Amino acid sequence: MTDRITLATYNIHKGLSPLNRKLVIHEVRDRLHALDADIVLLQEVQGSHIGLKAKFADWPDLPQHEHIAEGRYHDIVYGLNADHHHGHHGNAILSAYPVVNWTNRNVSHHRFERRGHLMARIDIPGWPVPLTCVCVHLGLFQRSRAMQIERLAEFLDDSAPDGSPLIVAGDFNDWRAKKSGVSKTLFERLGLEEAFEATHGKPARTFPAIMPMLTLDRIYVRGLDVHEARRLHGDIEGSRWRGMSDHAGLSVTVSRKSR
Q: What are the phi and psi torsion angles at 53 (to 5°)?
């Protein structure tokens, strides 16, 4: 029986430092293992890249999501979103618990930004129904985000029954905080609340990581009690996370909602 679980979300910037000068995927792996979250949702995961592998001598032999998971997470799903002649990248979900099923939905708004919603149902010991987790990375333009959130709501209307435990997390590229149409749609359509708003009164500032000002990264929950919501940069050994991505990561500790 598992009461509380911890979930983290992190845009890893393809395993490179913010200015792309240094390979930091090994440090990312070490810090995420030290965090020891039960489930990790990752964005900008480099599945392969011929040029970068040639440039960096210590480029891992495994795809980045498998490299990070090795030794800690036995269930891994990868949603390939952008495929090109150098390689491919996308989102990933790493879980210490069994993934029952998963899917990656293409929600690209135009050909210059390839985006997908990666969903996994995860069997948490002692929970009567699986936990549905969706890893998102929305577009840079407001019209793209509006379409992608509408597609997400339609998708989850059909695939995640009302009241079932649900987490939607990732890089929303949305800086408007309390005026966010993203939050409004997710609340009204799916009953989701943003974990940092619920616990701290406002979303966490996560971008740029060196001096976070914008609330681009979010964790939305439904059917769960939030016991703790933390920003990895600045709140948990902040100096050790600094310089590993242009985004700060987030984590929450949750349990099934008490009746």
A: -65, -35
Give the CA diameter of the chain: 55
Parallel, antiparallel, or unpaired for β 250-256 and 99-106? unpaired
Strands of the sheet containing 193-194, edge to edge, are 99-106, 116-122, 131-137, 166-171, 217-222, 193-194
Task: Report the alpha-carbon distance of residue 223 to residue 258 in Å, rounded.
Answer: 9
Contact in structure between 236 and 205 (CB atoms under 8 Å): no
String of DSSP letters for 29-87:
HHHHHHHT-SEEEEEEEEEEEHHHHHH-TT--SS-HHHHHHTTT-SEEEEEEEEEETTE
Torsion of CA 49, 120, 93, 130, to 10 degrees: -170
pLDDT given for residue 179 in this prediction: 67
201 token code pair? 């009164």
Q: For residues 29 and 44, what is the distance between their CA atoms, to the nearest angstrom?
A: 14
Which CATH architecture describes the domain 4-256?
Answer: 4-Layer Sandwich (3.60)
205 Cβ contact list (under 8 Å, min separation 6): 212, 213, 214, 215, 231, 248
Q: Which amino acid is at 141?
A: F
pTM score of the predicted model: 0.94
Domains of the chain, residue spans? 4-256
Mark the ranges of the chain whose per-residue pLDDT is less than 50: none
Residues 6+ apart with CB under 8 A from 4: 227, 253, 254, 255
| Contacts by 20-25, CB closer than 8 A, 24 or more apart | 23/52, 23/56, 23/58, 23/59, 24/243, 24/244, 24/245, 25/59, 25/60, 25/64, 25/67, 25/68
User: Residue 18 corresponds to which amino acid?
Assistant: P
